[in-house]
UniProtKB/TrEMBL annotation:
One GO CC term, this protein: cytoplasm
Location of the protein in the cell: Cytoplasm
Example GO BP: DNA repair
Cofactor(s) of this protein: Mg(2+)
GO terms, molecular function: crossover junction DNA endonuclease activity; DNA binding; magnesium ion binding
Keyword ATP-binding included in the entry's annotation: no
Protein name: Crossover junction endodeoxyribonuclease RuvC
CDD domains, per database record: RuvC (cd16962)
Length: 197
């Protein structure tokens, strides 16, 4: 299975492509970022995101796309801009008839580290380790996109059918502990239970 992970942004949209070999091995295929500048109009920026993402899809032919869920930040302007970029991304995915799965940042952190409050450096090191990379992927947005793709594969690894797009999204809410820490084994057990529901 080839998974395209996407971390949406109006200025920088990170993307990362990974491939699952058998059920246990995940290898990196490629990663990068779609860049726009504030000198471009909003329409030009969205068209650029659409065009460059289409090139990535054409080149790597993913089977599925994993994208970060939109969450509310403190600045409404930032949310609006990310939402517009995300809309262009989702439209491109829909035009290619690719299955789309969404994961919130906390779910991705739990999937990779077992800890929902892992910091950016911890996440980047886990992505580097999981993919056997010599260096941490740059820019940060590409590392986040790779984390999204790995999260999707982790959520479907022990289930031949893809789990619903919210497979990990409610994990913390429904399985809260005082320490807010989950082992990989606990996460897999929870996912197995959910897949049978």
């Amino acid at each position: 299975m080839i998974v395209l992970g996407i971390d949406p942004g109006i200025e920088t949209t990170g993307w990362g492509v990974v491939k699952s070999i058998e059920r246990e091995k995940i290898i990196p295929v490629s990663y990068g970022a779609i860049l726009t500048t504030s000198k471009e109009s909003l329409i030009e920026r969205l068209q650029s995101i659409n065009k460059q993402l289409q090139e990535v899809i054409n080149k790597y032919k993913p089977n599925v796309v994993a994208i970060e869920q939109l969450f509310f930040l403190k600045r409404a302007a930032t949310v609006a801009q990310v939402g517009q970029a995300r809309g262009a991304i989702v439209l491109t995915i829909a035009q290619n008839k690719l299955p789309l799965y969404e994961y919130n940042p906390r779910s991705v952190k739990i999937s990779l580290t077992g800890y929902g409050s892992a910091d950016k450096q911890q996440m980047q090191r886990m992505v580097q380790s999981a993919l056997g990379l010599k260096e941490i992927p740059r820019p940060d947005d590409a590392a986040d996109a790779l984390a999204m793709a790995i999260c999707h594969l982790n959520s479907t690894k022990y289930n031949s059918n893809a789990l619903p797009k919210d497979a990990l999204n409610n994990l913390y809410k429904k399985n809260r502990t005082q320490s807010d820490r989950f082992s990989e084994k606990q996460i897999l057990e929870i996912l197995k239970k959910r897949s049978k529901q």
